[in-house]
């Protein structure tokens, strides 16, 4: 709005304030983005002949998906889905149980410095690897099957949940915490009556959100041997049973939608 | 207030007895579901392998240390490819997600009955199918390489970006839109002057956040042949070159930490 104060000859023109205030940053970012995009496009070599060749194949692929065949592999699909659901529930519970102490330790306003750095390191480490990468290693350590997937999802949950819980605790209202402490509460009483009520609504929301994510991820840890519906999906792909694969994908989408609706409902009810 | 008489003394309790019992019952139910799920997982687990995990881990650790640092020279190109997959995939996602988000938002959609459900279905199906599954499909269609990875990341991110963006659009201040409409502005003008400025900061935050996630996801796409550092990782794991694997993992951690730092800085600068 400073432009308006400058006296000018003739009619004044108004222009929208830019998103980035500093002119140097604005131009720097734009030029940087242009240079980067040029460099990136320069190094991505797309084999257009192969892409073109693949288009009819893609069409055939899509046609093979329709109509989805639920019936002929239903027993396997049901088995896989159930296994995914067990893994989801068990790993969400265990992951959250572990991430509560980690989250408390990773909150800057609660934990002493050494504990804080240790817990932050745990969170950063478990967050920096994608679930599939973790699954490869856990399958190697624990053998094929849902147990490896369960451990993978639990570890991934710790990283996700610990970080968000810690951020939420850092954002809490210190006045309430102080007033509970002023009543002479011990550390655990303080945690239970000052911290816990403040973070609880978000805690429940995040748990449901993570349940949702864990189900979706459980569909892929199976590709590297971690059990669940992913194993079934991978088998369907490898046997070129695309109609069964389409059925599996639709079942996954359906369950994700159901979980999302329920969790939205529960979150509204909690808050 | 839930108070009960104990002889002469009044004792304060946090909840009424019925409510407390209901809460205990809820916990019991949840616990039994968890125990049941865990039992089913454990039935399918070969516990001998799990108990053996310690020695397996020690063995793996011994093979991974010391990392083969010379291998790093050959990793710069795949790392650059990985970053390109994430960035260009995010750009692709933005191009598609923005119109979808405007179609899905209750207050900007042209048709509540027809277009909004379609947009919501696009969002849900893109969100429920993991980028690894997209990559699996696309490698078959357009051939192995970064191009498949870029499209896979793009397709997976559409749902994420569009969902958060349409929620931001639905939360805008309607009075500003009304004020612009009152000046006699047409539809596109209302959009550019009334709605876009309100959601732009949220949009920038969402995009950077998704870019950060995409960096993490693009590290594994190579496992199914869709380019990036995952190809090197897969090759090293397959040839049991664990001292190379540890270099790759360290490179991934470093990249992810840098991208997280960048995204946190940008989000702080905007919000």
Topology:
The complex is a heterodimer of chains A (271) and B (271).
Chain A: H1 2-5, H2 23-43, H3 48-65, H4 74-105, H5 113-128, H6 131-142, H7 146-170, H8 174-182, H9 187-221, H10 229-238, H11 242-270
Chain B: E1 3-6, E2 9-12, H1 17-43, H2 47-51, H3 53-64, H4 76-104, H5 115-128, H6 131-142, H7 146-170, H8 174-182, H9 187-218, H10 229-238, H11 242-270
Antiparallel strand pairs in B: 1-2
Characterization of this structure:
- The complex is a heterodimer of chains A (271) and B (271).
- Chain A has 271 residues and is mostly helical.
- Chain A has helices at 2-5, 23-43, 48-65, 74-105, 113-128, 131-142, 146-170, 174-182, 187-221, 229-238, 242-270.
- Chain A is built from 11 helices and no strands.
- In chain A, helix 9 packs antiparallel against helix 11.
- The two termini of chain A are 39 Å apart.
- The mean pLDDT of chain A is 83.
- Chain B is mainly alpha-helical and 271 residues long.
- A two-stranded antiparallel ribbon of chain B has the order 1-2.
- In chain B, a hairpin with a 2-residue loop joins strand 1 (3-6) and strand 2.
Name some characteristics of this structure.
heterodimer, A: mainly alpha, B: 271 residues, 3% strand, flat
Q: What series of H and E elements makes up the topology of chain A?
A: HHHHHHHHHHH
| Contiguous uncertain segments of 5+ residues of chain A | none
Most residues in contact, chain pair and counts:
A-B, 60 and 60 residues
Shape of chain A: globular
- Give the termini distance of chain A in whole angstroms: 39 Å
* Annotation field: number of helices of chain A: 11
Radius of gyration of chain A: 26 Å
Order of helices and strands of chain B: EEHHHHHHHHHHH
Query: How much helix, percentage-wise, in residues of chain A?
Result: over 70%
Strand proportion of chain B, as a percent range, falls in under 5%
- Report the structural category of chain B: mainly alpha
Oligomer: heterodimer
In one word, what is the shape of chain B?
flat
Percent range of helical residues of chain B: over 70%
Q: Major sheet of chain B, described briefly?
A: 2 strands, antiparallel
